[in-house]
Specification:
Elements: H1 2-13, H2 26-38, H3 45-51, H4 62-88
Helix pairs in contact: 1-2, 2-4
Length: about 90
């Protein structure tokens, strides 16, 4: 199953213009988060770190990493809320 996550991450990052993050395909990114969640992964900074390690704070890639972590945190909270609502029926 880890290969599936790697494939989804590759799908998300292929042909990405990182200089214009508003053009990133959030649908593919959130599909990656959902799939990771279903596999029991915690969706947040640790998950991003597995696929996109934290760069030095002064690196040009730091903003990109911070944006990904922010999106992962949002998705993680949404997925936890969804799970709670599903349990309540």
């Amino acid at each position: 199953m880890k290969k599936d996550l790697e494939d989804l991450w590759a799908s998300f990052t292929s042909n990405v213009n990182w200089n214009q993050p508003h053009y990133l395909d959030k649908e593919r990114l959130y599909r990656f988060f959902s799939h990771a969640h279903l596999q029991g992964e915690y969706v947040g900074q640790d998950l991003i770190g597995k696929y996109y390690p934290e760069p030095a704070e002064d690196s040009a890639k730091y903003d990109r990493w911070a944006w990904l972590v922010s999106e992962a945190d949002i998705a993680g909270e949404l997925l936890k809320t969804y799970d709670k609502e599903r349990e309540l029926g």
